[in-house]
Design a protein that fits this description.
alpha/beta, globular, 11 helices, Rossmann fold, single chain, 13% strand, 260 residues
Length: 260
């Protein structure tokens, strides 16, 4: 199963959700790959991998498929183990930003799909973190994936962007990946005591959009896990937000099983 976490709006928790769902997957015994396509490398950093070291990264993978490597490497050469059993990262690199135009001009959007297909027997689950815009890397991820989910941070501007996001993704699905499934919207940074989040969730449901039952609440523990570069399922498995990620992961797994 290859799943994309995508929203065109920044600051909604894509990297946090991607890394913690991947960590929960690994903690449940699934050999899990986290692919980081954002040049900022937040999910790479979160999982304890240094994007500025000398190791190979997803940027090198794209350079190779574009024909810029004299000696081709197997897809596994670009993957790093983490300190957490079962969790692996295909790390980002700042040079992704510089590569984008050249890759787009050469129409290499299908190369991520081809690479992940070669790795299919290596991993049980793949989570893909994307940049906060509908660019080459987001499109490559959506073409490569089986499904996508959308983080929503209970901001009025976020709900205005949902329709545009879905229009973009569904058009790409029609053209390039007809089997891509929209799994639903993840409510992130939820404050149960505030009136606006409840109203906004009601507005999403009124649009007949799928919204996951499990919400991710606001907590300083998330920031602590960022600073310690340790996803919550490994840092504090019994914390309430770790349990929320566990329940969200179970909801995703149940939906996947039901759809088969």
């Amino acid at each position: 199963m290859k799943r994309v976490v995508f929203n065109q709006k920044g600051g909604v928790g894509k990297s946090t959700i991607s890394a913690n769902l991947a960590a929960q997957s690994a903690r449940q015994g699934f050999r899990t790959l986290l692919v980081d396509l954002d040049a900022q490398g937040n999910s790479t950093h979160y999982c304890g991998v240094d994007i500025n070291d000398d190791g190979l990264t997803v940027a090198d993978m794209f350079k190779q498929v574009a024909g810029w490597f004299a000696k081709p490497e197997p897809p596994t050469a670009f993957i790093r183990p983490t300190a957490y059993n079962g969790l692996f990262v295909l790390p980002a690199h700042p040079s992704l930003a510089d590569l984008e135009r050249e890759l787009e001009n050469r129409y290499k959007m299908f190369k991520l799909k081809e690479t992940l297909a070669e790795l299919e027997d290596q991993f049980d689950r793949v989570y893909i973190d994307t940049p906060p815009n509908f660019n080459f890397y987001s499109k490559a991820a959506l073409i490569a994936a089986d499904s996508f989910l959308v983080p929503f941070d209970c901001d009025d501007f976020s709900i205005q962007a949902i329709d545009r996001l879905l229009q973009n993704v569904l058009e790409l699905r029609a053209d390039h990946n007809p089997s891509l499934q929209f799994e639903g919207i993840v409510i992130n940074q939820f404050n149960a005591q505030a009136k606006l989040p409840v109203e906004l969730i009601g507005a999403l449901k009124a649009k007949s959009l799928p919204v996951f039952e499990q919400k991710i609440h606001s907590t300083v523990k998330v920031k602590e896990s960022h600073s310690k570069r340790t996803p919550l399922p490994f840092l504090a498995p019994s914390h309430k937000v770790s349990l929320q990620f566990a329940k969200l992961w179970e909801e995703l797994e149940k939906a996947e099983t039901t759809s088969k």
